[in-house]
Amino acid sequence: MPLYHLGEVFGTLTALNRTNDPNFTPADIELMNGMAGQISIAYARQVLTEQLRAANATLHDEITERILLAEQIRTNAERVAAMADLLQALAEAKQETQAVFDVIADWIMRLFGDTTLIVQLSSDMQNAEIKVVAHHDPDQTPLLKAAFSLPYLPITPVMQHVFSCGQAIVLLQSEHPISLINPQYSSLIEHLNPSALAVVPLRARGRIIGLIYMARLHPNPPYTAADQAFLQDLADRAGLAISNATLFAEAHAARAEAERANQAKSAFLTSMSHELRTPLNAILGFTGTLLMQLPGPLNTAQDHQLRTIQHSTRQLIALISDILDLAKIEAGRIDISPTMIQCQNVIAELAASLRPLADAKQLRFISEMPTEPVVLRTDARALNRILINLVGNAIKFTDQGEVRVIVKKLMNSEKEIIEFAVQDTGIGIKSADQARLFQEFGRVDSPEVREREGTGLGLRLAYQLAHMLGGTITLDSTYGHGSIFTLKLPANIAADDA
């Protein structure tokens, strides 16, 4: 007799008649049908029970998986938030190296509660300086500090292993042998009885600059792969912060040393300028007295020699003044005293001073200015020094033709600009040499330049003074045809520049 489940046969019910009558009675058939129905019902219940059990197991697995996923998402969110807070804390450490180490240790304690030791490696990776020793239990901290009482640690097998693999390792709970731990710290390890030890490299700019040692104590769970990945990410960001802080400290020290050297140079130049100017002024005075023939008459050769001495002495005094002014500018010791200046008067005084030099070379000295007064507020002495250098150079390097000084009033982004252009028909400057002109001693090395007097300081001084006045100096030159030096100054010097 067939057994049915959901319209399909899943088995049969077989009965043997052992009576003398070989035929089954209707009562027998009815009984067997009832038994077949009961078996089918029992079978259906068993199938449903198995299906329900399987569905429950699947649901349990899915719920467990979702709980783990939710826990992972929560942990990741917490770690992302913690990483953002850590980066903010590192930024607030204000580039102080020890403060950065302290912040890292504090956040490791917050996130993991693990005993922490952080060391910084020397540049040759032969020594490890202890920067932080921390324990979540303040009573245990003295023990740790006593164990690591020396400021430096020797390079241990653990360090060498991390150097070779370049990534975090975990001891005690993994395949890494406990023999990597330095024997001298075995008693400390036994006292702490950690469930695991983690060593994480602080990496920055392609090298390992330090290590973070972490001891996970019972009953905290062992380090997971996610923990190790997060720790390495944290250590990489911390390593970069430490590297930046170290570079900042080194740059600050170098800047302080440079400032001390600059101050020493300025003090030396100030002292030497006084010591040199005194005898040079005496030479000028005695030379002038001799040229006036007060002690007695001079022959032609004597007069020529004395004038040569006088000219050379004046050049030396001018050179000393330029060097001293440059030193003062670099040291920030030149004060700007703005006053109202009428440009027509400045150019008239400049022409009266330098026109004789142009006349001596038979050069035309031309000035072009607006008919209405051009007024600007700036430092008169600095402006005069700039223009004397620019116009003096134009006359020096022009053998024929003219030197032209052009004054214009311009508007630039609603800001009034006064432009002084010094144009000459001189030897001009090659493009390759133009960048050197505004450097110290930046003279062009060519025969037509070497035969003329100068040290290469004048343009550098003019450039620096223009910058102090809030202005610029630019150059437009064609070799063999002449040059145009353009000074642009604000009509009213800003308070910050002054």
Q: For the CA atoms, what is the radius of gyration?
A: 46 Å
Shape: elongated
Biggest sheet, strands in spatial order? Answer: 5-4-3-8-7-6
Number of helices: 12
How big a fraction of the residues is strand? 15-25%
Q: What is the H/E order?
A: EEHHEEHEHEHEEHHEHEEHEEHHHEE
Please tally the β strands and state the result: 15
| Averaged pLDDT | 80
Distance between the termini: 115 Å
Query: What's the story with the biggest beta sheet?
Result: 6 strands, antiparallel
Residues in helix, %: 40-55%
Poorly predicted tracts of residues: 176-180
**Structure classification:** alpha+beta
Topology of this structure?
Elements: E1 2-5, E2 8-12, H1 26-92, H2 97-112, E3 115-121, E4 128-134, H3 141-147, E5 152-153, H4 157-165, E6 169-171, H5 186-192, E7 194-204, E8 207-217, H6 225-291, H7 300-330, E9 338-342, H8 343-360, E10 364-368, E11 375-379, H9 380-396, E12 402-412, E13 415-424, H10 431-434, H11 447-450, H12 458-468, E14 472-478, E15 482-490
Parallel strand pairs: 10-12
Antiparallel strand pairs: 1-2, 3-4, 3-8, 4-5, 6-7, 7-8, 9-11, 12-13, 13-15, 14-15
Give an overview in words.
- The chain is α+β, with helices and mostly antiparallel strands and 498 residues long.
- It contains twelve helices and 15 strands.
- It has helices at 26-92, 97-112, 141-147, 157-165, 186-192, 225-291, 300-330, 343-360, 380-396, 431-434, 447-450, 458-468, and strands spanning 2-5, 8-12, 115-121, 128-134, 152-153, 169-171, 194-204, 207-217, 338-342, 364-368, 375-379, 402-412, 415-424, 472-478, 482-490.
- The strands form four sheets. It has a six-stranded antiparallel β-sheet, sandwiched between helices. A five-stranded mixed β-sheet has the order 10-12-13-15-14.
- Strand 14 and strand 15 form a beta hairpin.
- Helix 2 packs antiparallel against helix 6.
- It is elongated.
- The protein starts with a strand and ends in an 8-residue tail after the last strand.
- Residues 176-180 have low confidence and may be disordered.
